[in-house]
Amino acid sequence: MRKPKTNMPDEQQRFERFLRSRQLKLTGERQELVAEVFAQAQHFDADQLHMALKQQGKAISRATVYRTLDLLVQCGLVRKSSFGDQHAHYEPVRSNEHHDHLICMNCHGIIEFFRPDLEHLQEAICSEHAFKPLHHSLQIFGLCKVCRELEPEGLAMSQRISQLSV
Question: Does residue 103 sit in the same domain as residue 88?
């Protein structure tokens, strides 16, 4: 007889249902990973997550981190994004929360924003084209206020960006 799960966070319950549907198990390592993912306040990459777990004394392999992140993305609990660099960034998906990103190409800072009017416009566009959206991501690349004020670094990056778009 199975013990009933008590006090398991919603994310872990959802992940467990997802894993069971694929005949996989919610192992202790996977539970620790889910907990750490949802403890993150910022975007992170797989290596940062692995390092955070390692610093807590948790012996979880890098391969397990990558495989579990892929499963969490498939489950819809984690969003995977590329912000113009060579590796993936992740963030937990929290209950119906949506936001878009401004990405500084100089300092690699990420500014999250939400605009209801922009969301309504996207819905209207989809409706006009009888298109059913399943997911969307808006990323605007440029220079943040601090980098724009830096001279000549901000100016040099701005010129490189201009050359790329020609």
Answer: no
